[in-house]
């Protein structure tokens, strides 16, 4: 029963969030051979100025070895770091 939490920079439209949710749900169903009812998706919008403290330092860095897709940015390359 996958529950996916997507954290994105604030300012995404409802259309973008809906499309992303639909795409994620479809792909999870396909890869894991699940029905739609088994998948849930949450989207959390984070202010860009807060990204380093609330996402990078808490969700990314401490779990670096378990990330299947690592970001191409870091504290020195992101605005407002």
Automatic annotation (TrEMBL):
Q: Which UniProt keywords apply?
A: Isomerase
> What Pfam families would the database entry show?
Tautomerase (PF01361)
Q: Which domain of life is it from?
A: Bacteria
Please report the stretch or stretches of sequence annotated as the 4-oxalocrotonate tautomerase-like domain: 2-51
Single GO MF descriptor:
intramolecular oxidoreductase activity, interconverting keto- and enol-groups
InterPro entries, A to Z:
4-OT-like_dom (IPR004370), Tautomerase/MIF_sf (IPR014347), Tautomerase_PptA (IPR017284)
GO CC, one annotated term: cytoplasm
Catalytic residues at 2
How is this protein named in the record? 4-oxalocrotonate tautomerase-like domain-containing protein
Origin organism lineage: Bacteria, Pseudomonadati, Bacteroidota, Chitinophagia, Chitinophagales
């Amino acid at each position: 029963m996958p529950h996916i939490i997507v954290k994105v920079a604030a300012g995404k439209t409802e259309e973008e969030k809906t499309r992303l949710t639909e795409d994620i749900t479809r792909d999870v169903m396909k890869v894991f051979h699940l029905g739609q009812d088994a998948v849930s998706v949450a989207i959390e919008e984070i202010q860009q100025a807060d990204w380093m403290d609330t996402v990078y330092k808490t969700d990314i860095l401490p779990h670096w070895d378990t990330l299947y897709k690592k970001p191409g940015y870091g504290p020195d390359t992101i605005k407002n770091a």
